[in-house]
Please model this.
Amino acid sequence: MDSLERYTNWFRGSMPYISAHRGKTFVVFLGGDALMHGNLVNIVHDLALLNVLGVRLVIVHGGRPQLNDAFGDSIFHAGRRITSASQMLEINAIYGALRAQLEALFSTGLPNTPLHNVEITLVSGNFVAAQPIGIIDGVDHQCTGRLRSAQVGALQQLLDTQAIVLQSPVGFSTSGQAFNLAAEELAAELAIALGADKLIMFNDPGHMTNDDHQRVSRVTPGLLNDMCVGLDPITVARCQALISANARGVERGHLIAFTDDGALLQELFTADGIGTQISAQNEDLIRQARLEDVADIVEIIRPLEDDGVLVPRSRAQLEQEIAHFFIAELDGVVVGCCAVYAFADAAELACVAVHEQYRHQYSDMGIGSALLETAEKAAEAHGAKSLFALTTQTQEWFVNHGFTPTDVETLPSGKQSLYNWQRGAAVLQKHLNS
Model:
C-alpha cells in the first residue's frame, strides 16, 4: 500500500470521529513534564487542530518539576506540596511564565498548513475559587488548597465562542488569597463541573500495559485502579484523576504519551488508538438500535454481504426490523451490530458484524463478545432456552463462543421453512443459562 492510499484510508477512517467529536468538550491536562519536552510544539499544534475542527477545549497545565527546581526543600504530605505564603508569590510567577509559554505557542496557529493564518484564541482568568486544605494529621497545609467552585457559566460562554480556555493550578479565596492546587485534581474537577465528554491526561508512559507488557487500549476504572499498584506516584495521580472523573460523570478518559508526536490525533481519530482509554463496563458499549442507526448498520454489513458472509438486507428491511437490532458504539461511532429474533423457546442470533476497521482492534475488550452477551440476555428475556445462528464462513468464532454444530431439523419450524438449502449455511446452537 503506497503512502497516498494509506492517507486516503486514514482520512476516510477518521471522518466518523471528526463528526463525533465536533461540539464536544474535552479537558486536557498538560503537566510540567510535558511543558519541558521537545514535543510540546507538536502537541500545541494538534490541540489547535482540534479547536479548528470544533472541539471545545479546556487546558489545565501543571508545573511540578518547575516547582521542584525552585523549592528543593519542599515538604510533602500525602502527595501534596506544603505551600507557604512567601512561596506562593514565586509560584504565581512560575505559573505565569508557563502560561505565557503556552500562549506564545498557540499564537502561531497551524504553521506549514493551509490554516496557518487561523487565529487561535486562548483565554485565561480567575475561573476557579479555592479553599485551603487546612490541617490534616496535624500538618498545616498553609497555602495549599483545593477547588471550591468553578465559574461554569463563564467557561461555557467562552467555549461557545470557540476560544480555548487555559487554566493554571491556582485558585483564589473570597478574600483574594491565592492557593496552590494539585493540577491533576483540578483537571478532573473541572471536567466534572463542565460535564466534559473527555478528560485527557498527557503522561510518560502514555498507556497501561498488561502482564505480557502489551498495551491495553481500553480499561474500566476498577481495572485501572488495580493496574496503578507499584507505578510511579505521578502516573498514579493522573490515573486516579481519570478514575475520579469517570466515576462522577465524565464518560471517557484517555492516558496519552506527551513524548510521541501525533499521539493525541492517533488516539482520537483511529480505531486502535495509541494510548489507553478509560470508560465504564462493556454494558455501556452496547445499546438498542434506533432508526437513525440504519445508515451506520448498512455501512458495517454491506462489505460482508458483498463477500457472501451475511445474507443481504435492504435498507427498508433494516428499518422494519430495527427493534431486533443492537449496536456497539465507541466514542459516538457505531462499530458493530447484531440482531435477535425470537422463535418460541429458541432465538436466532443474526447479522453479527463488526466494522472492518475494528475487527482486529480492541481484542482485549471483545466487541463481538459484548454483542453476543447482550444477545443472550435479550433471548433469555424472550423466554428462549437456546440461541442458534446460521453461518457460512464464521463457524470457528461461534464454536469459540460456546456454540455447537447441529442439524437443520433442530431449528424452529418457522425457521426451517425459510432455510436456504442452496446457501447451505451451517447451523450452530448454544444453550442458555436460564
